[in-house]
Structures are given as C-alpha cells and as structure tokens.
Amino acid sequence: MYVGHFGVSLALKKYDQSLSLGLLFFAVQFVDFLTPISIFLGIENARIVPNFVEASYLDLYDMPITHSLLGAFIWAIATYFVFRYFVLRSSSDTDAEKLRASLLMGIAVFSHYILDFLVHIPDLLIIPGIDFKIGLGLWNYYLPSILIEAVFLLGGFLVYNQTTPTGSDVRSKYGMHVFIVVLLLVNFMLVTPHPLPGVDILGASLILAALSAFLSEFLPDISGQDALTKELTRRNILDASLVVIFSYAAGYLIPMFVGYAAIPGFDTFIHELVFLLALGIGLLTAGITSYLVAVYRSSTSG
Question: Angle 253-255-260 (CA atoms, 0-180°, nearest 5)?
Fold first, then answer.
C-alpha cells in the first residue's frame, strides 16, 4: 500500500494534537524507508518485474526484516522506546502525554504491516525463517487496489478534518483538502503494473511539497484570534509534505537506480531525473521564498 498508509497518520492525529503530523507520516512509512537500505546492503531481496501483478511491478520475495509480522512488531516496540525514553526525554510533557505520543508512534509503525496485508500477494512473512507467507492479494486487481488506497486516505482525512482545529481563512480551511487531492493523484502513478520512468514519483513529490506550501499559505497575517490554529494547520501540511518528499525520494530512488540500471532506456531515465529534480527544487525554492517574504511582512506590520 502507498498513500493509504497516510490515512492512518491522519486518523491518529485525533488522539494527540501536539504530535507532529510529519512524525506520524514518517512512522507509517518507516519500514519502507528501511527497505531500500536493506536491499542495497543485500540483507533483503526484491525484483522489478513488469506486469508482476495488475497493480504492482515489485516482487518482494525476500523481506524478513522489514515486512514480517514479527519484524513489524519489533520495529513498533523499538519506536515506542526510542520516543518514550530518548526523543521525549527532555520534553516538558507529563508522563501520560509522553506515553500517549510514544504509543501512537508505535501503533503507526505497526499499522504498515496490517495495511500491506490487504494488498500484497502472499509475500509477507509471519516469522522470519519460517516459510509461511500471507497477503490478501488486492494487487492482483487494479481498480480495487486504487479504491482501497483512497478509502483509507479519505477515511483518515475525515477523522482529521473533524478533530483538528483550523483557521478561518480559506487557505487554512482548505489547504489540507488540496493536499489530499494531490496525494490521490500521485497514487495513480504508484499503483501500476509497469516500472514507470519511476523518478516521476520523486518529481511529483517535490512538486507536491511546493504546492502544499503555497496552499497552506505562508500566512501573510499570522496575528489575530486565529493565529494559533492557522499556524497549526500550516505546520501540519508542511510537515506532512516534507515527509512525502523524503518517503518517495529515499524509499524509491535507491531501488530505482539498482533495478533500472539493467533496463533499456536508462540514459533517458537519468535525463528525466535531472529535469524533474530541477523542476521540483525550483518550485520548492519558490515556495520557501514566498513563505519568508510573508513572515517578514507579518513581522514588520507589527
């Protein structure tokens, strides 16, 4: 599963408004961040197989560390302890608040395996070393794969939208709506049986971050009664969009270089990489500049 994981992040935000949405986005994709590293190091193994199933070209045939039930549980427990006793160690939060935030992060990490179970073919181990694999196999069917991603993402957004305060201005109220729509569009690029000039994913993610930054707006006026809630909304969108960049850059760039090197047209792929990186970075730079100008104007209008 791809963007559907982010629906879990959005829903979990309900239980701790102080917890960064970006951290929750990171947590639900944590094992996918580890996957390309483990493949690159030869710890795990996967293949790019065009038309492997209707909704994926990834044959994840040897993933005992990142995509097993026991592995997911261990990573979740490790995340809980790291946040509870290291990340939040010097926080001024109460013990109950630290416990809640750490539990939410652990749940977010573990949720990845549960959602993957719905779409993967039987390639998910229960216990490493025991050759028994599970998966409901929705990736065998293109339309259901697209729909289940949308259901989880939109369901999580519905919970988020009902429980997270926003400012009264148009951008604060609807910026996250546009963010979700763009995620759904990116999903159509991800759920595919063909290895795209796959770096389009990276380019789309960079553009997504810039677009989200513009829409969350750089609040030209961050003073007034709604300042806190508008800032909260802006931070949520920016945090989440930056993690989306990291997710698709770190999570797909390494295996793309490893896998596509043997595919005809790799030179063209490199040219697309340079072009899309330039475009994405340009848009992101424009967004950051716009934000700095807005903050400066706000501070000088005093």
Answer: 95
User: How far is it, in rounded angstroms, from Cα 295 to Cα 279?
Assistant: 25
Q: Kindly state the tokens that stand for 293.
A: 């100008």
* Annotated domain spans of the chain: 1-164, 166-302
CA distance 155 to 294: 33
Residue 62 is inside which H or E element, if any? strand 56-62
pLDDT reading at 160 higher than 50: yes
Instruction: Name the token pair of 223.
Output: 């003073």
| 124-125/133-134 β-pairing | antiparallel
pLDDT in tens, 102-112: 999 999 999 99
Find, among 280, 143, 137, 140, the residue nearest to 199 by Cα. 280
What's the one-letter identity of residue 249?
A: A
Which residue, chain included where needed, has tokens 């160690």? Answer: 89
Cβ-contact 6, 160 below 8 angstroms: no
Three-state DSSP class for residue 44: coil
Q: Which range among 154-163, 256-265, 280-289, 293-302 has the greatest average pLDDT? A: 154-163
Distances (CA, A) of 249 to 55, 119, 206, 242, 299: 21, 22, 9, 11, 34
What H or E segment, with its residue span, contains residue 49?
Answer: strand 45-53
According to DSSP, residue 68 is labeled: B
